[in-house]
Amino acid sequence: MRPECGRLHRFLPEASLAGDGEGPAMLGASRVGLQVPADSVPGLPTQHILAPLLDGAPVEAWFGRGACRTGKAHGVSFRCDGELLFGVIELAEAAFAGDAVATPLQQAGQQAYGSLFRVLAEEGFPHLWRVWNYLGDINGETMGLERYRQFNIGRHQAFEAAGRLDMDSIPAASALGVAGGPLSIAFLAGRVPAQPVENPRQMSAYRYPAEYGPRSPTFSRAALGRLSGEEWLFVSGTASIVGHHSVHHGDPVAQTREIVANLEALLAEASRRTDGPAYRLDELSARVYVRHPEDYPAVRAELAGALGAAAPVVYLQADVCRADLLVEVEAQACHLLT
Q1: Are the CB atoms for 234 and 172 separated by under 8 Å?
Q2: DSSP notation for 122-175
Q3: What Cα–Cα distance (Å) separates residue 279 from each residue in 282, 332, 336?
Q4: What is the pTM of this model?
Q5: Are strands 222-227 and 230-238 parallel, antiparallel or unpaired?
Q6: Nearest to 284 by CA among 302, 310, 265
Q7: What is the pLDDT of residues 87-105, one digit of tens each?
Q8: In the beta sheet, which residues pair with residue 6?
Q9: Is residue 42 classed exposed, middle or buried when 0-12, 13-18 and 19+ CB atoms within 10 A define those classes?
């Protein structure tokens, strides 16, 4: 049974966004769907995930504890309360020329992260907790390099330039391929640091060997962040990877089972680091990415058995960062602090 601890995060139907979004406590939202909505709430940082919704609520909303302040700087739209800042930045790759050293996507990624780091410094929320990255054609190749690897170079360069490659401060994150549109990045940041959590079944992503690209992905497997009276576990995009190898090629059900095993290991590791009760699968709310829509029923059935049939889960069609991966799950859970 999930605890009553949903102040920060909720899935919402589309029709409720306008009313909730105009409330003073909403930090921001993400919306799933191929159609770009024309009725976005003015001033509310909203990430549009350009992907087909397979099941679940199309809006994922984040709430502050009280009235929020709205701002925009360096291309980042944001809202913040006393503890958290939620922001969104979107950059069109066509605005970047590229050159012999860097592709337009690499340049866009580096600029986007550099911009959000400047906002965090200026607004007094220096600690990046959670990031969601979306880009078109993530597994495509240009200039002899997969686009996801191009993005990783730009992201890594921005972390390096900002002096943020300390592995004790790397955020939880996801990176997925969508149907097009700009490079879109949403993020949560805090005034106090979150604690990175790694998975003992997997190699840390930032230590991947060179076969996965010139720069390793810059994210932790999960992060624990504390707010007033609450502890939040943010689980990064989790796929069928053991060590650093993709496993169960071509089998979405077996990949989903491996994901559940990875989630269990990650929750056990997070439980070692908390002063509260152990984290459990049946506490998670999740966003699930399925590469092929025909695999959705089998993936959903497998996850319902693991998380519970009533778990708050949103399913969408998107491309995972490796072409041989068919499913990815990201999640969060909350514990009340006593």
Answers
A1: yes
A2: HHT--EEEEEEEEEESTT-EETTEEHHHHHHHHHHHHHHHTT---GGGPPEEEE
A3: 9, 10, 12
A4: 0.96
A5: antiparallel
A6: 310
A7: 999 999 999 998 989 999 9
A8: none
A9: exposed
**Tens of pLDDT along 47-58?**
999 999 999 999
Distance CA 36, CA 118 (A): 28
Convert the pLDDT of each residue in 196-235 to its tens digit: 999 999 998 888 888 888 898 999 999 999 998 899 999 9
**Is 328 a known active-site residue?**
yes
At position 221, the amino acid (one-letter code) is R
User: What 3-state class would DSSP assign to 222?
Assistant: strand
Tell me which of 146, 198, 258, 328 is the catalytic residue.
328
Entry field: residues in the chain:
338
User: What residues have CB less than 8 Å from 75, skipping those under 6 apart?
Assistant: 89, 91, 112, 115
Structure tokens at 56: 């679940």
